[in-house]
Task: inverse folding
DNA sequence: TTGAAAAGTGTGTACGTACACAAAATTAAA
DNA sequence: TTTAATTTTGTGTACGTACACACTTTTCAA
């Protein structure tokens, strides 16, 4: 551990004053070519790295971050993302971060549009964190943010036709392939269940997962098209009837996946039907899904790292506003964890 | 985000000087009961939290940490632990940490004893990080450290009869159960392979994993005792002969696990034997194992989070020496990740 | 050649904590 | 009661960076 050189020492090395070194580091301009070269050489030689602690002490600015994500439900996916936000905010509690939360209902485009318009009204806005569900509204928002020069980062899913500064997601195509691996299905008897969505198109994540699963099946010589069924995400009674009807009509089904986080609805229905012979692979480490995994009605959960997404988003922005000058684009693809009943106890909601 | 109160503000609230507040926070003594109560009340009310940045600026001490772990092999388990150390040291590069590495050969007790005795000779030793392999030498070391009042933390495995300040491990019993889940073996045809160890007893981690697997089998109605085979960990030619002989003598074997990180040796042998019908579940995200997973000769890897262990160990110590006064014992059981060929690309060596 | 204006450079203070030291208050001893 | 010893409390400076401001040098038009 070599001792870190200070700005003062760099200044001495380059034969200038600390102020000049500071101007070069933050390129505040007004420095002659001659000294710039000398200082940059010294900086290089000493391997100078700004002392984050001291830097934080002197830095007085308030960073305003607006965040627009689907509303969190206790124990649900977005509450884990929020847990990640909170962890990061706690860690950076010495930095003055103004946090403007503008959640929306992920099943209601209007609510999303309204949240997005509030984002644009936030005063002194420095950056935006977006957990996108709807494509067009998000594209519009991003275009406006681009023209205002305000950086934005995506968590959970990325929207095409936008220019985010950073993206924190999981590879959904891989998720789909892992479904295939875990189901270990035979030629026929596979079904893909999904929740119905009013108005809007299917979520991009779920489309990409399905593509991954189908690719896996093709690679493993399964040519029979999986059976499909849609069920309600809001009306549980209706959902149970729809799912029940589907399984009665297709008694050969033995391998099932639900490509979003509502797998527990299917699990509970299958349990009521006494169908313990069905292997069910679902998504996300939510409270309901964990319960079903515990009970044995879900075989396995494929989990993203929502807390890591939230944590990293803030970490990135703080780092950007704090230490870096220029834009440093970054896409972080987080691991996909496979959780069985057995290793469930060692995962926590805040898994990062 | 409520503004953090500073020591100065706390002092004002309690009607004392900042120095008094400081003495109370660090219990440097010499404070009257009357003011202690007043200040503690103010501290409580304001929810005071020391500003880590400023704290780091004023704190000038050098922390000396000795670390004794098995020597890292490029791409191996302990190199990931070291990656975690390095990440943490980089993150805390503003803090003056003196880092004394004293690695030993994990297959040689003498080398371990020698490393441990060097630990005790380190000047101004503040804390020790131990990656233990041998029980008795470690117990002896810990007893001495206890009497010297020097804190130590364990990574990877904990040793009984010691009093570590913190422990960063995975639950090996769960690991074993997950092996059972992934193998999905039938009544007979299961084998447990292990590397031979000269002189010393089997590693505690591997014993605990076996126990977990056997418990899983019992719970799932498999009563046939698994077949066993030991092979050399140093002489690959010998190992391949031993493994080959075992499979020729036991042609019914279809499900195999290797309870330490040397699974790739078995995988490569099986590949040469053309036995693609054997499902092999191995441990640890090492370069060799990743290659076999990629090639398909390993079905699945059960991975601990060595980088997280290393990172957390240093994080804990820095936190302790930096912010906390008293001892705060902590056992962190890290998640166990299941890696298939499909989700391999989204895990990195530095997975935390 | 002169003298603004502009460009370049140095100085000094603030940030909040840690800690040394000086000052004040209290206690104990004579 | 007085004085010394002791305990308690306040003050001031350092840490390394950020940034405002003052000062010096250069540039360039008149």
Result:
């Amino acid at each position: 551990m070599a001792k870190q050189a200070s700005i003062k020492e760099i200044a001495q090395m380059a034969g200038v004053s600390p102020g000049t070194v500071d101007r070069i580091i933050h390129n505040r301009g007004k420095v002659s070519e001659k000294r710039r070269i000398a200082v940059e050489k010294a900086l290089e030689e000493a391997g100078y790295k700004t002392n984050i602690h001291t830097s934080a002490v002197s830095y007085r600015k308030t960073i305003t971050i607006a965040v627009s994500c689907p509303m969190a439900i206790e124990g649900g996916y977005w509450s884990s993302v929020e847990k990640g936000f909170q962890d990061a905010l706690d860690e950076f509690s010495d930095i003055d971060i103004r946090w403007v939360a503008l959640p929306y209902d992920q099943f209601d485009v209007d609510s999303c549009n309204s949240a997005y318009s509030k984002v644009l009204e936030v005063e002194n806005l420095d950056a935006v964190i977006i957990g996108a569900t709807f494509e067009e509204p998000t594209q519009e928002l991003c275009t406006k943010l681009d023209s205002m020069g305000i950086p934005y980062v995506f968590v959970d899913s990325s929207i095409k036709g936008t220019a985010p500064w950073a993206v924190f997601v999981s590879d959904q195509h891989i998720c789909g392939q892992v479904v295939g691996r875990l189901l270990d299905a035979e030629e026929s008897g596979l079904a893909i269940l999904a929740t119905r969505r009013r108005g809007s198109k299917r979520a991009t994540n779920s489309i990409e997962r399905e593509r991954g699963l189908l690719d896996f099946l093709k690679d493993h010589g399964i040519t029979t098209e999986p059976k499909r069924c849609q069920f309600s995400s809001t009306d549980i009674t209706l959902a149970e009837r729809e799912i029940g009807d589907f399984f009665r009509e297709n008694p050969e089904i033995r391998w099932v996946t639900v490509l979003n986080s509502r797998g527990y609805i299917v699990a509970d229905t299958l349990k009521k039907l006494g169908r313990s012979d069905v292997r069910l692979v679902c998504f996300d480490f939510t409270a309901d899904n964990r319960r079903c995994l515990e009970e044995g009605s879900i075989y396995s959960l494929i989990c993203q790292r929502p807390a890591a997404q939230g944590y990293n988003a803030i970490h990135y922005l703080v780092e950007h506003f704090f230490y870096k000058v220029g834009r440093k684009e970054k896409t972080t693809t987080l691991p996909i964890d496979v959780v069985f009943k057995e290793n469930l106890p060692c995962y926590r909601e805040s898994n990062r």
Chain A has a mean pLDDT of 91. The domain at 63-169+306-334 of chain A is CATH 3.40.50.2300 (Rossmann fold). Chain A touches chain B through 43 residues (CB under 8 Å).
